[in-house]
């Protein structure tokens, strides 16, 4: 089905866009960002901030670019003198009651009010003689503070809660210049997706308690990633300051999570900053009562030897947070043997976001359930634990075991690949330091069979390495050719034994992923 | 109930219980519930009955107390926050308790031209309210300024409760107030 | 008639003929005065023929915009299978305007009849009459009249045996000037904040409850039965030279005239005749200073402009203002123009719905500047600042409340600059203390 295209000229650039496109979106295609506040591509447009007024030839007055749709032959000027004066005046009106407290505002550096005023606002105020409006800071919910004095009444937060979350917890109260964003005393902003109002707020009015005064926006390094919280696979940014993860924020992917992520995913990042990490490979030498730190050459040789010498059953107990590359290469490492491979899938309560089709916090709280299944892991966790009693080799791939699960393990040889150290690992033959998903490149496959990349957000501690690297290096020692030297190569190689990934590369996936055909049963390896 | 009107008009059913916020007695029960139920078929949505329902709540409680607000929200399937946003938009819903007789004095330009300031001053003095928005010590009166009452040819119009009184002058005030105990 | 005063010979009483006549309020009284003949006639016509009749009469919207009523009705989709709505805007709250109140108080059945005709013309079975919350007496009169109309089959399942179903529902507002704006009114009726909506979609496409809707002012609908009874040609003939402005118009005159009231004029009547003859002119010893002719939202006129002005849509535009709702605020030489403009700005700041930035902030800011001028603290740059802010507030927002705040400020400074400068130079003593 072809969409009817409309030809328009925006700031001298001709573009063809589908009929019904608002000028503001058409302008993006012409390389013009029309300044705006209330408009957001994932919310209904109310056209109230009046910031996006543009000049449309033959129209009697300036038109709001967010709700005015393109028409054939339309000529739009986003930066004419009248449009600029209108914007300058909106900025002036927005600033008269604004506290200008940028030095103590978390939004500074990523504030659209600050940015546009800097870009085209007046150099000085004409409102110097009057007191500014004052309203106290309100505690809206578990993670959200409302700083009313900074509010520009764009109503994105109200519309998100009403139209997207379908939980009208916020309102516009009062009217005229007395208006503010209100909440009923009987209610809290504790919806599982409420944190998105902080991202949606274009100024520093709705702020995160978790991030409060933690870092300046311009000091942050941002890395594209995928939320490891559940099988939805929301696209996210991991923001770090000096190798410390300080917050997770949603990254736009219209097919997966639009512009949103849930609060469970958003708040679950502290594990990425854990200090109790394994920093060197640890080996139990014959007769030694304890593990000794060694270099990778010795550790890898020991691993290769162990795998090669194992003739019986191998049990793989893996974390559902492990990358596709990790799961696939570790499984390949022991492919010669009879294998029982499983991942642990914690189950929680689902929380849908009603306004976005197919978006929810899922019950299965692992990001790579479908990836794990694709490369030969089951979710029969208890069965795999039971199988360790008769296994010739058990490999733990970053799987945190509960105390009672440790007790169920058989007494056979144990190899641990892990990010953090546990006391009971002392019984293992080999303990190898792993990078966490925040410290490596990799892919997950979400519940819709979308293969999505995550990128390295921070440096790995000590000698920690990605699991695929460890497995591939050990395989090389045992004579396998074609050892990958990067995550990209490790991924590209998967197609050789997983047909549905055939030919796919990181470049193909981009940063929004690609949906693959599920592999027919029995065709693996 | 009349066949054609929404039946929540000024003054209907108000009065006796108006100043007792009695949360243990639900607003939307008995006659009031019947009035509300009779409204629903007149509109395609329940939400459209929000303003009428708020009028009923204010008649029953004298103001839109937090409890009344929650009851209105519940009976219409709305959230309290949504209802609060609407309540605070309209000036005639009281978001805090007011005197037994709520007096609104028009002071917009046409009336101002004809001396409404003097009427207002006299009202504040004679009711004992002293200042705008304050309730007199005996709980009888609250006086506020109101924007244009739409009777500019009859300056100065005032509203006492639901009684619309035209052509008020400072001289008439004490006589008028005697009718409101 | 110049209610509450006796009718003036220069008036053309059509709508106001029975103002003050309590007997006209009842169904029977209205029928005895020729009422409901228009509705009966309309029910015998096709909806299209009724619309054509309105077009031929030249009737224009009396609420303020002056849009041709027949044309507006013709925008309603035909045979679309959806419910249609008629909404009667009885939220009269434009300062200076008090005509709809009298129509509802004295001739409620004229309005009900007009609503019923309108429903028939646009294919609606339901008309909501949105009456501002402060209009307690009109509410009671209308309630009783609606009840009577149902009892006599002028409303209901089968209006006058025609097989047509026409319902009229009264809906009470709760104190918000902006609900007189048609899209804000529809939001209010739906149980929302009275925020004006973006157009398009226009009400005829998606109005009340997102269904095709026509919204008309009380005075417009009240004129409809008269036009049907007496014919479009008669109505069109009520004209003093300008064929675009026909019929009678109620002009609410208030302020400094001897006889304030509602005067029903044939459109085109000279404004000075209205003010100085019909209304009895200024109080003794006073002279005219300024007139706001169409409700507070329109520019001020000087006595010179008043002198040569014909009171109709185009005539007032030619003299620098607008007919608007027909609320005429007359100010004599005792008036402090600066204060009155400040008072109007304060009104708009109070009534701004808070949606659009320019309106929310601009109405409050201009009010503060005017207050400062009145307190004797004004700066020489304040007038230019007011003019620049007014320009920034004009033509940029969803509705025209912001423009309405700017109009008196701009025209006031342009036409009465000396009054402002007298405050700036301290020649006039301060009248406000700075808060």
Structure characterization notes:
- The complex is a heterotrimer of chains A (525), B (181) and C (435).
- Chain A has 525 residues and is of the alpha+beta class.
- Chain A has helices spanning 23-29, 81-96, 112-120, 156-164, 196-200, 263-267, 296-309, 324-333, 369-374, 381-387, 403-408, 467-477, 487-492, 506-509, and strands at residues 5-10, 13-18, 53-56, 63-64, 75-77, 137-139, 144-147, 170-173, 180-183, 206-208, 221-226, 235-241, 244-250, 282-283, 292-293, 313-319, 338-344, 351-352, 360-361, 393-397, 414-418, 430-433, 442-445, 450-454, 514-515.
- Helix content of chain A is 22%, strand content 20%.
- Chain A has a 7-stranded mixed sheet, sandwiched between helices. A 5-stranded mixed sheet of chain A has the order 2-1-5-3-4, sandwiched between helices. A 3-stranded antiparallel sheet of chain A has the order 6-7-10.
- In chain A, strand 23 (442-445) and strand 24 (450-454) form a beta hairpin.
- In chain A, helix 2 (81-96) packs across helix 3 and helix 8 (324-333) runs parallel beside helix 12 (467-477).
- Chain B has 181 residues and is of the alpha+beta class.
- Chain B has 2 domains: 8-96, NADH-quinone oxidoreductase subunit E (Arc Repressor Mutant, subunit A, Orthogonal Bundle); 101-177, Glutaredoxin, CATH 3.40.30.10.
- Helices cover 35% and strands 10% of the residues of chain B.
- Chain B has 7 helices and 4 strands.
- Chain B has helices at 30-39, 50-61, 66-76, 80-87, 109-113, 116-127, 173-177; strands at residues 101-106, 141-146, 158-160, 163-165.
- In chain B, strands 2-1-3-4 form a 4-stranded mixed sheet, with helices on one face.
- In chain B, a hairpin with a 2-residue loop joins strand 3 and strand 4.
- In chain B, helix 2 (50-61) runs antiparallel to helix 3 (66-76).
- Chain B is elongated.
- With 435 residues, chain C is α/β, with parallel strands linked by helices.
- Chain C is 42% helix and 12% strand.
- Chain C contains 18 helices and 10 strands.
- The termini of chain C are far apart.
- At the B-C interface, helix 2 and helix 5 of B face helix 7, strand 3, strand 5, strand 10 and helix 14 of C.
């Amino acid at each position: 089905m072809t969409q009817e295209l409309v030809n328009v000229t925006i700031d001298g650039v001709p573009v063809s866009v589908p009929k019904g496109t608002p000028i503001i979106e058409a302008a993006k295609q012409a390389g013009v960002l029309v300044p705006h506040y209330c408009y957001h591509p994932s919310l209904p447009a109310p056209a109230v901030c009046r910031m996006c007024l543009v000049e449309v030839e033959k129209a009697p007055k300036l038109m709001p670019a967010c709700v005015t749709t393109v028409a054939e032959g339309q000529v739009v000027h986003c930066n004419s003198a009248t449009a600029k004066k209108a914007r300058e005046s909106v900025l002036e009106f927005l600033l008269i009651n604004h506290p200008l407290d940028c030095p103590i505002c978390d939004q500074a550096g990523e504030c659209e009010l600050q940015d546009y005023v800097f870009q085209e606002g007046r150099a000085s105020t004409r409102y110097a003689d009057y007191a500014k409006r004052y309203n106290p800071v309100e505690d809206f919910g578990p993670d959200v503070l409302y700083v009313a004095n900074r509010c520009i009444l764009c109503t994105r937060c109200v519309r998100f809660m009403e139209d997207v979350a379908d939980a009208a917890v916020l309102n516009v109260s009062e009217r005229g210049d007395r208006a503010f964003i209100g909440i009923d005393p009987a209610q809290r902003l504790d919806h599982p997706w409420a944190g998105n109002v902080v991202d949606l707020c274009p100024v520093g009015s709705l702020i995160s308690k978790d991030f409060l005064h933690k870092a300046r926006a311009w000091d942050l390094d941002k890395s594209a990633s995928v939320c490891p919280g559940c099988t939805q696979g929301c696209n996210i940014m991991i923001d770090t300051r000096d190798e410390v993860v300080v917050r997770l924020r949603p990254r736009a992917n219209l097919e997966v999570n639009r512009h949103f992520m849930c609060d469970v995913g958003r708040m679950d990042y502290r594990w990425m900053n854990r200090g109790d990490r394994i920093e060197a490979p640890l080996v139990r030498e014959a007769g030694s009562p304890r593990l000794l730190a060694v270099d990778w050459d010795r550790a890898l040789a020991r691993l290769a030897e162990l795998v090669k010498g194992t003739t019986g059953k191998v049990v793989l107990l893996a974390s559902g947070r492990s990358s596709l590359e990790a799961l696939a290469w570790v499984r390949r490492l022991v492919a010669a043997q009879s294998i029982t491979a499983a991942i642990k899938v914690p189950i929680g309560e689902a929380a849908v976001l009603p306004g976005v089709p197919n978006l929810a916090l899922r019950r299965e709280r692992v990001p790579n359930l479908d990836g794990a299944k694709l490369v030969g892991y089951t979710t029969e966790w208890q069965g795999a634990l039971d199988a360790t009693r008769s296994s010739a080799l058990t490999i733990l791939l970053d799987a945190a075991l509960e105390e009672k699960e440790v007790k169920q393990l058989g007494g056979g040889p144990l190899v641990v690949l892990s990010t953090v150290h546990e006391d009971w690992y002392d019984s293992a033959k080999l303990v190898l330091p792993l990078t966490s998903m925040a410290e490596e490149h990799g892919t997950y496959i979400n519940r819709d069979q979308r293969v999505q990349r995550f990128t390295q957000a921070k440096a790995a501690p000590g000698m920690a390495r990605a699991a695929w690297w460890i497995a591939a290096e050990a395989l090389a020692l045992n004579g396998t050719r074609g050892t990958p030297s990067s995550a990209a190569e490790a991924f590209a190689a998967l197609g050789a034994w997983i047909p549905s990934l055939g030919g796919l590369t990181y470049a193909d996936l981009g940063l929004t992923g690609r949906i693959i055909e599920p592999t027919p049963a029995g065709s693996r390896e | 109930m009349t066949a054609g009107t929404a039946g929540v008009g000024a003054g209907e059913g108000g009065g006796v219980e108006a100043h007792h916020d009695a949360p243990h007695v639900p607003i939307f029960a008995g006659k009031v519930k019947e009035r509300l139920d009779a409204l629903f078929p007149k509109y395609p949505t329940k939400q459209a009955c929000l303003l009428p329902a708020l009028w009923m709540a204010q008649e029953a409680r004298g103001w839109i107390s937090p409890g009344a607000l929650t009851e209105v929200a519940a009976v219409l399937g709305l959230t309290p926050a949504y209802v609060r946003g609407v309540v605070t938009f309209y000036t005639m819903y009281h978001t805090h308790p007011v005197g037994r007789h709520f007096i609104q004095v028009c002071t917009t330009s046409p009336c101002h031209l004809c001396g409404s300031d003097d009427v207002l001053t006299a009202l504040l003095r004679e009711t004992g309210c002293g200042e705008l928005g304050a309730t007199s010590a005996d709980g009888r009166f609250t006086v506020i300024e109101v924007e244009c009452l739409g009777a500019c040819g009859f300056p100065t119009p005032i509203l006492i409760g639901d009684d619309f009184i035209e052509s008020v002058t400072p001289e008439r005030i004490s006589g008028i107030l005697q009718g409101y105990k | 008639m110049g209610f509450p005063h006796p009718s003036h010979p220069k008036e053309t009483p059509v709508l106001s003929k029975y103002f003050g006549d309590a007997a006209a309020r009842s169904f029977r009284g209205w029928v005895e005065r020729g009422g409901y003949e228009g509705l009966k006639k309309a029910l015998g016509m096709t909806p299209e023929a009724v619309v054509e009749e309105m077009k031929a009469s030249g009737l224009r919207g009396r609420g303020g915009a002056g849009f041709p009523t027949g044309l507006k009705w013709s925008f309603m989709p035909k045979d679309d299978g959806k419910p249609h709505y008629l909404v009667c805007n009885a939220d009269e709250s434009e300062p200076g305007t008090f005509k709809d109140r009298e129509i509802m108080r004295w001739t409620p059945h004229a309005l009900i009849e007009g609503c019923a005709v309108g429903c028939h013309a646009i294919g609606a079975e339901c008309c909501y009459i949105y009456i501002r919350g402060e209009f307690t007496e009109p509410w009671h009169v209308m309630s009783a009249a609606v009840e009577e109309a149902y009892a006599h089959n002028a409303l209901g399942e089968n209006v006058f045996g025609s097989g047509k179903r026409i319902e009229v529902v009264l809906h009470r507002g709760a104190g918000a000037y902006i609900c007189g704006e048609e899209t804000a009114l529809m939001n209010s009726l739906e149980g929302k904040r009275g925020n004006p909506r973006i157009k398009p979609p226009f009400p005829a496409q998606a109005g009340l409850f997102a269904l095709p809707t026509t919204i008309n002012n009380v005075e417009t609908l009240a004129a409809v039965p008269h036009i049907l009874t007496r014919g479009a040609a008669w109505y069109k003939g009520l004209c003093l030279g300008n064929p675009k402005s026909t019929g009678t118009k109620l002009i609410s005159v208030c302020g400094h005239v001897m006889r304030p009231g509602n005067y029903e004029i044939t459109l085109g009547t000279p404004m000075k005749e209205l003010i100085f003859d019909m209304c009895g002119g200024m109080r003794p010893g006073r002279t005219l200073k300024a007139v706001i002719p169409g409700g507070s939202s329109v520019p001020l006129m000087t006595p010179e402009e008043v002198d040569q002005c014909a009171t109709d849509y185009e005539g007032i535009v030619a003299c620098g203002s607008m007919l608007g709702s027909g609320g005429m605020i007359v100010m004599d030489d005792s008036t402090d123009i600066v204060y009155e403009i400040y008072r109007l700005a304060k009104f708009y700041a109070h009534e701004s719905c808070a949606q659009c930035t320019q309106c929310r902030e601009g109405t409050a800011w201009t009010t503060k500047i005017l207050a400062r001028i009145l307190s004797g603290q004004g700066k020489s740059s304040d007038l230019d600042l007011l003019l620049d802010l007014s320009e920034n507030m004009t033509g940029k927002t969803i509705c025209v409340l912001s423009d309405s705040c700017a109009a008196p400020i701009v025209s006031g400074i342009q036409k009465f600059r000396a009054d402002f400068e007298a405050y700036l130079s301290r020649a006039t003593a301060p009248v406000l203390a700075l808060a």
